[in-house]
Amino acid sequence: MIVSMERIFLLPLLRLLLLKQDPLSVQLWVEKRAAKLATSFLRKIGFIILLRNITIEGYKLDLVCREKQTLVFVVVKGRYLAIFEEWHIRIDQKEKSRLIAAAYGYLKLLKKASVPFRFDTVEILFLEKSFPKVIHTRNVFGKENEL
């Protein structure tokens, strides 16, 4: 789903950052690009992006989207890999609790009687000799919820 222009700019810049051997710069670049690619990907599959990188009650949400009538809270992660390997986002119990707290904080701000919502993840794997790989997982915490 990534256009060919993406490859023209993506890999040379990443290689340049890697040559500088500054892991922090590489990670910041990967996270920034992952957020942009995840947003683009979700729009292409029909999501409406409502908010990006917001903090509610001290908790951070990467993306708040809408798919049809469902509110979707999306966790975005990016990773650079020299070769493809299986990798999935790991959300520990502490991070899960923070995401749920942020989501409920956002839902309280909406002041609506009932809103169906769920949590998704989008993983962007930047591969050295290939286009980025996008892995979208719906409903990572189980069934859809309603407040």
Explain what this protein looks like in three dimensions.
This is Endonuclease. Pfam families: UPF0102 (PF02021). Belongs to the UPF0102 family. It contains three helices and six strands, in the order H-H-E-E-E-H-E-E-E. It is globular and about 50 Å long. Mean pLDDT is 79; it is low at 1-5. Strands 1, 2, 3, 4, 5 and 6 form a six-stranded mixed β-sheet that branches. It has 147 residues and is α+β, with helices and mostly antiparallel strands.
Secondary-structure map:
Layout: H1 4-19, H2 23-44, E1 48-56, E2 59-67, E3 70-81, H3 93-110, E4 116-127, E5 133-137, E6 145-146
Parallel strand pairs: 3-4
Antiparallel strand pairs: 1-2, 2-3, 4-5, 4-6
Protein name: Endonuclease
Organism: Candidatus Methylacidiphilum fumarolicum
Family: Belongs to the UPF0102 family.
Detail the poorly predicted runs: 1-5
Distance between the termini: 34 Å
Structural class assignment: alpha+beta
The rounded Rg comes to 16 Å
Question: Helicity level, as a percent range?
Answer: 25-40%
Question: How many E strands?
Answer: 6
If you average the pLDDT, what whole number results?
A: 79
Number of H- or I-type helical stretches: 3
**Strand content range:** 25-35%
For this entry, what is the oligomeric state of its chains?
Answer: single chain
Major β-sheet annotation: 6 strands, mixed
Do you know the CATH topology? Trna Endonuclease, Chain: A, domain 1
Note the run of SSEs as H and E: HHEEEHEEE
Q: How many domains, as an integer?
A: 1
